[in-house]
Amino acid sequence: MQQPLKNTSTLDLPLASSAPILPGTTPPTWLGVMGGGQLGRMFTHQAQAMGYKVAVLEPEPDCPAGHVADRHFLANYSDAFALADMAALCAAVTTEFENVSAQSLATLAQHSFVAPAAASVSVAQDRMLEKRFFTACAKESTVLPAPHKLIASAADIDDIPADLLPGILKTVRLGYDGKGQARVRTLDEVRQAFADMNGVECVLEKMLPLAYEVSVLVVRGADAKAVVCPIAENVHRDGILFTTTVPGPNVSDETAKRAQHAALVIIEQLAYVGVLCIEFFVLQDGSLVVNEVAPRPHNSGHYTMDACVTSQFAQQVRAMARLPLGDTRQHSPAVMLNILGDVWFEGDSDQAREPAWDKILALPSAHLHLYGKAQPRRGRKMGHITFIAATLPAAQQQLAAACAILGIVL
Ligand code: ATP
Ligand code: MG
Is the pTM here over 0.85, yes or no? Predict the structure, then answer.
């Protein structure tokens, strides 16, 4: 909850400083996060474990990060007073969602170290900017985005090249978890889908023959040193991430190396500071296509919490505090299963039930993470379980056992 501001110790911190922002000081050092969802909650846990106080700015009073933060600024993300309070309190501020406005980040940057910076976040907010950026990087990264065309107005639909169809029409801004997207086969279907999206700017992407999907987490410090995590193979269901498997059973060494190299080129060219997740498609002919970036830790990077030397949230803390980045080495094969609100209901009915977490935790390799959301709803991300084991088949076996317990069809 919002409390009066007492600690202004970080006001004196020289902004241009490249000095690390150390934890465990007297008075304590505060880190801030824009957004109060589960990513903010896991960031908060990690920052607190490392000795920082954490402030969250989030308009929703009952939210996953607000429950655990040392201070909750209960305000809209663009509230000038709350932003000023946050900047005065926190030595550094990060974000847990991509749609925080550039203006808010710029306001915070007047008094705090903001990582990632507004300019890099804005690339992730606009699918056209993002695709132009990927294309500009391709000379070095060797990986292109899907063939596409901007549909800014209905007139643009008339000159869609035939080979872009069938395709996917995506809003340029504010899409997530497959929302703001429509699959289209004909020009008439594009017209209908564009009208259904109320004529907001869209991009039409060619529908590609995907073999599987992967993502790569990269982290870059304020000193421009970057590290890359093992590549993750992702399975989506109904537009929502279902499982992440690392090492990915389909991923060749060559694909892994190429995607990791592309990720390092992209983070470098963005001059990005913080954790960045880059999603790729692998096509049936083995070629690699870059899809999008998320300027924050990512659902597909949750496996790092239990399977790697340094979790993505610990890397986020280290990057924003200008500390050395941690080792990205994975010590155990891992499968991450997202837990949606559906498992709080019997089958397809409205009948509520409590999932048998005791039985899940009887599986020796299961690491349960629940986000403290009071209302389970179908399709709502409530938590995740990571299975780590000595071998990938052993982890997959435990995944199958957990799905049987929770009534999830694998
Ligand atoms: P999220 O927030 O889950 O990352 P999103 O709403 O930002 O999703 P995308 O990642 O662009 O949207 O697309 C969602 C899913 O749709 C992809 O993971 C992929 O399965 C499928 N998809 C997207 N674009 C294409 C394409 N050009 N060809 C084939 N499949 C695609
Ligand atoms: Mg995506």
Answer: yes
